[in-house]
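Board work, copied verbatim: Sensor-like histidine kinase SenX3
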Amino acid sequence: MSRRWSIARQLFALQVLVVTLLVAIGTTGAVLLASRDAQAAAEAEVIAVAETLANSPSVIGALRSADPAASLRPFTEATRSATETDFIVVMAPDRTRYSHPTESLIGQPFAGSVDEALRGGRVVEEYRGSLGDSVRTVVPVRDPGSRAIIGLVSVGIKTDEINRELFAQLPVVGIATGIALLLAAGGSWLLSRRLRRQTHGLGPAEMTRMYEYYDAVLHAVREGLVVVDRDGRVTLINDEGRRLLGVEADGPADLPPEVAGLITERRPTVDEPVLIGDRVLVASRRETRFDGRTLGTVLTLRDHTELRSLTGELDSVRGLTEALRAQAHEAANRLHTVLTMVELGRADEAIALATAELAVAQQLTDQVVGAVEEPALAALLLGKSAQAGERGVELTIDGESRLTGSLLRGRDLITVVGNLIDNALEAVAETPLPRRVGVLVREEDGEVLVRVRDNGPGLSPDQAASAFRRGWSTKGDGHGIGLSLVRQVAERYGGSYDIHTAGEGGAVISVRLPVPS
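↓ predict structure ↓
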């Protein structure tokens, strides 16, 4: 077939050809069966007529008479007309005919086989006789008393007559064949039309090339791709998608609850953060449509774990830089004040001012370093304290804070403490002065307790219930991820997390992380 033919057209042509061959074979078989049935019916008919005549008292009486031919001819002709057979021949055992449709043949010997009938049996055969080809039978006529064979009866139907009856049925067979072909062709056309819609009229070469490109792109693309049909069943996950979601290559495509929730929510999603294990993924969801019909959902996933980590570090560095710049500015102001006081001859007051400022800074450093032996966490607390000061927030480290040694992974502690403090700083950012944030980090009963409180507006019960959910944010932009990261760390350690409103207002978030044995 031409390469330009679409798959639908090729399938239609092939189906029409196969159906035509099947119908032709079926019709031929039906004609052959009908011919055989007509032959068998003719044989049964001549046997029935011959047996009836052989047992007829009229035939037996005529054979016993002095002139059998005179008695038998009118009777056999009437019977032949009534039974619609072509000839009835009654003969003597020596083959001499007593009756025949052709009067000139009466008295002539019968042409055909009679040996089996003379032995008391029956002869059934196709034979070319004086009237042409026919199906005939020969049966014996017995004397009722002695059971001796006193004659023979032959009944026949010409083959032309049998064929004529068969040909009379051919129009019906032809009409049935035509209807079958039309129905089969119509069904093939409908099927090819549906296939053409589904394949968009593409030919085998185009389909093969498209599949090769499609498969190559799916394996090469560095974005995770999840395709779901209209019923919510996963139909495709590419290699990167399986890697990001932790789905085995040969296993069932069981999506994590976070991703499954994005698909079932049926809402537009663009670059929404999703936590899968230790990964921070950015997901975008859209429905696929063709000709106004919804075909399913496509979800793309990008790994932003390292980017989020770098962004967090960059934000921390930027915050520390701003804090240091502010502190440098304040230090310059204080130094200028101290120098001016010295120039004015008020050296004692200048020394007292400088010593007081140094004591406050050193007190905070000594408190943090003395309470927290984890260096990364101590540095984080000092940095966040400077950042809070720059933002006009008073960040205090609870005097009961105590953490000896590296009980947990430093990265996990930084994730929990850093995100809780950032969340508290955001909560008090728009509140009137004074703005306060308190931090407690303590080991108790085999657990590390991290508690951060603020004097912000607090959370409603609905907000508190959703605070640790993926994408929750007080800004309502759906991009909140800090508390989700905290929840992820807590669940990985088998710990707990809680949020409630303090008695004097504001929110208190507590996270308990069991110390691994």
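The chain has three domains: 8-165, 221-303, 367-514.
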